[in-house]
């Protein structure tokens, strides 16, 4: 379990780095902020799916549409919990307090990992 969680964290760092690179590269190339943001998130999500599927959860074989749908649903739910947690933390700590991000990030990680393991990539061999 700890190995899987460590790999999940590394995957998160990799997809964040790619997403930021695409966003900043898009802005540098003249894309609008919204378009660059969408492109960065799309690239990060594709890398996240690929690395989580293979490297973190050990799933092999063809990718199914249902698997992709479950992944996107898990992401959406985890992100929704992140936003709700952030708003609650900002209410308690102040809207501009960067510490409000910490419980939001933690909530996202816990929810997305649990959903990925039990709902999205459940067909993988247990660790």
Overview features:
single chain, mainly alpha, globular, 127 residues, 2 domains
Question: Which range best describes the helical content: under 10%, 10-25%, 25-40%, 40-55%, 55-70% or over 70%?
Answer: over 70%
What is the 3D form?
globular
Rg, alpha carbons: 16 Å
Summarize the biggest pleated sheet: none
Series of secondary-structure elements, N-terminal to C-terminal: HHHH
Q: Structural class per helix/strand content?
A: mainly alpha
> Strand tally, please?
0
The domain count comes to: 2
Mean of residue pLDDT values: 92
Strand content: under 5%
- Low-pLDDT residue intervals, each spanning 5 or more residues: none
Straight-line N-to-C gap: 6 Å
Helical segment count: 4
Verbal overview:
With 127 residues, this protein is mostly helical. It has two domains: 1-56; 62-127. 79% of the residues lie in helices and 0% in strands. It has four helices and no strands. The radius of gyration is 16 Å and the shape is globular. The termini are close together. The model has no long low-confidence stretch (mean pLDDT 92).
